[in-house]
Amino acid sequence: MDDLIKKFLDTLNFNYWNLIRHTVENNKELKKTVPTFLLSPEKLIIYVGSQHIAIEYIGTYNRPISDEKQVECVLYDYSEVDNFLEEIIGVTYDKGTLTIPLNGCVDDLYIATVEATDLLSENNWNFLAQEMTFVLNVSGLFLGENFTRLRNCFFYEKNNDGLKVRNIKWMDIFPIERHDVDQDTEDITVTFPNLPLLAKGDIQYSLPEKLNFQYDKLMTMNRFIELYNSEGTSETDITRFLAEPENQFILNMAFFGSSLHAEKECKWIDNEEKPPIRPDFFVMGSDGMADILEFKLPTIKTETVVVGKINRETFSSEIHSYIAQTRVYREYFEDPRNRDFVKSHYGLEVYYPKRYLVVGRRWMFAPPEWRAIINEYKDLTIRTYDDIVDTVMGHLMS
């Protein structure tokens, strides 16, 4: 596997990235339009399947291109999964009548499950305003045999009572052939397209028009992404940024909120000596009821979020401690006297609130086991920082 990845990256570097970088360095105008993540990604994620290898670029569209040579790569081996593409996307589609093949260059594709479509409709999502290919009642996705590129594609799934959005800004998927050399060795060959020709076209790629139209909000999103990726950033730094009036659209869009209320101190009416709770945010829904958002850092102290033996997996103690904190919030609002206090002091109607825990990055939660674990928590939904960004970008593109 190490030899495969090294040769794969060396080929891309020599025949693709170096050509783009050399051209851009000699043209100041191109520096303003070429997507930053092609030359200076926050991270590269490589997925190896039984018939394909994919590389996903993580980062923002516009920011100064860094001269830093080392880029962190994350590798996932999906050789044994049934559906390589759906495993990458992390969305399970409905048992409908339509199976979608993805092949060639695919731009501005929006695919939603039936339940996700209903949720979007309930929240007044404007389908007619979409300048994209929108597909409903999808029973599955599969890849063709040729090179495939997914660019600015959105995938929607209902997750508990919320919406899960997966945005792929840029992902290239290459066919591979596997041949057994002997019992312990396998020869894997990657089929590349004409990479210099591909680079020549990609140099001219610029921001989608919708993002240009929403330039101010896009820049705010960039600041948010930069903030939670900065060394030394605290939870308070993040929540203070999101609480600023001009930035509140981020959480309102991400959670279909009509208004946002930060750090309201809630006293226990039956026990004043008990420390008050102070959720990071209450987000008011369209039904007039408030839900609770709790933020933790995008970094995880432990090496993995899922621990335990096969068929006995559970979250790490770190994640369990975060969940326990939100469980106190549920306990608080089970008492009608506490609910009356919050309503009279802050004007917030809170009754059996949904609890959202925002923590970590998507690639930290990639193993499928964690999805089964989170389903055991019926009134708790875990969102990653990538989920927040993808959902907001889905709105901005509408």
Task: Spell out the key features of this protein.
Trna Endonuclease, Chain: A, domain 1, 14 helices, nine-stranded mixed β-sheet, PD-(D/E)XK nuclease superfamily protein, alpha/beta, 398 residues, 27% strand, five-stranded mixed β-sheet
Structural description of this entry:
This protein has 14 helices and 16 strands. It has 398 residues and is an alpha/beta fold. Strand 5 (109-112), helix 5 (114-122) and strand 6 form a beta-alpha-beta unit. Helix 1 crosses helix 6 (195-202) and helix 8 (215-229) packs antiparallel against helix 14. This is PD-(D/E)XK nuclease superfamily protein. It comes from Paenibacillus polygoni.
What's the short version?
This is PD-(D/E)XK nuclease superfamily protein. Helices cover 35% and strands 27% of the residues.
- Describe the global form: globular
**Per DSSP, what share of the residues sits in E-state strands of 2 or more residues?**
25-35%
Q: Provide the succession of SSEs.
A: HHHEEEHEEHEEEEHHHHHEEEEEHHEHEH
How many β-strands, per DSSP?
A: 16
Radius of gyration: 22 Å
The structural class is alpha/beta
Q: Which bin fits the share of residues in helices?
A: 25-40%
- Unreliable runs: none
**In total, how many domains does the architecture comprise?**
2
